[in-house]
Every structure is written in C-alpha cells, then in structure tokens.
C-alpha cells in the first residue's frame, strides 16, 4: 500500500509564487504521510491564454525552477511530479513537459505532452511542440506502477491503454483543465472512465480558478472517487493498494477480454490511403467548437 496526494492550486506568471505554493502543498502532503504528490500541468508558469510569455519563461529540465522542485522533493522526502514549459534549443515552440523527482531529489520521470489542446477555440500547438507518440512515462513506487499523461491526453483512451499495457496500475493526469460549457462534466466523466476501462487508479491534479476548473480527484479502479479537492487550493490524500487493483481485475477481467491492441503512431501517416484499414477516412467537419 502507498499513500499518495494530488495538489491543486492556481499557477500564474510569477514563478517564485508558484514555487511557494508547491512548497506549502508538498509540506502538507508529506506531513500526511504521502510518498508521492501530483501537481497540475503548467505549474511553473501559467496564463488563461498562451502568449509569448510561455516562450520567454521556458526553462530546461535542469533549470532553476526544476532544481528548486528537486530540493523540495529532497527536503520532504517525497516524490514530486509537476508540469512545466520546457525550453527546446533551436525550436520556436516549447514542450509541455511533466517532470518527476524522487525523494533523493534525483530525476524520476519525464513526459512531453502528446495531444495538444487545439479545441474550444484554443490553439496550444501555436506555442507547443507535441511529444513523440511512441514515448511512455512510467515509474514504480511501493509495488505499484504509475503511468503519466497530461490534460487533453485524458480525452484519448489509447494512451491510457498503452500505459496499462506497460504495467501501469495507477494513472496520473496533471492538468490545466479550463472551465467552460460542459468542461467540468467532461472532466468528471473522463477521469472516471479512464479508471474504469483500465481497472486502474487515476490521480488527476487540476489548477483551480482562475486558471483551471479545479475538482482534482483520485479515482479507484472501479471508478469511484475516493478523495478530491473541490474549488480552492488544497491537497487530497489517500492510500492506493495493489491488491485492490488485482482484485478488481480478477472480478472484472476486461483487459484480458480485449480483441484489439493499441499501437503508437500518427494516424495521418499510418496506412496506405484514407479510408483503408488502419487509416480510416476523416470525419466531416461539423463546424464550431467541439
């Protein structure tokens, strides 16, 4: 069994203030016995709408902000996973990157967001370079394997399934899930759906207002929310149990009943031609925001 936490706050353009918030929530989580805390996407620097600030504020993964987060992990002897805008040498865009540090302050995992949020009138790809779809981010803790993805990735069940195929029993989803019509409902629905269909725990850490919709949550393998934070900044802590995952998978062996497998790749270049197996014809444009 392992005690884990999700940390919720509203990141802004002041990196020092964001680091202070991370430190306070990390201290609370560690005092509650958590051995891992998951923070939101863009925890280092965030705005409601991306602009040149996302480029100007970007840092490498061994830059000053990451170094200070590593110090937090070491100070409180806890694993810390958070989101940042990573500077890419020679690129005009950044990477939307998750970094995790172990309790010794050493790098534990890294993931660059694959699915960019070009929806609801927003164009993340104007500022961000997508990660390679073949990458997988997993790490182990106290007998459980964790797999990471970011925000909009939650809408794509293939990535969660690939992580599950790689042994993940708990999925972590840092997010800056913006509020909007039906968006909060989608968040609640999708976090539970990804847990149920993979019979895995799911830890979703969102930013709260004004930069996010809040409602950070930890969901068990049967899709039941077991801990969460509603609207304000805060920490939710609970215990995960590998035997709970195993018991649910024995009772509901849907992973063994599958008839299809997921292969990473770019659907725009896979297959021979549109409409052929492996490369289905595109859906007609319905117009408007999805």
Automatic annotation (TrEMBL):
Q: InterPro entries recorded for this chain?
A: C-N_Hydrolase, C-N_Hydrolase_sf, UPF0012_CS
The species this protein was found in: Actinocatenispora thailandica
Signal sequence range: none
One of the record's GO molecular function terms: hydrolase activity
Q: Which SUPFAM superfamilies match?
A: Carbon-nitrogen hydrolase
Which Pfam families does the annotation name?
CN_hydrolase
* Protein family according to the UniProt entry: Belongs to the carbon-nitrogen hydrolase superfamily. NIT1/NIT2 family.
Q: What is the name of this protein?
A: Hydrolase
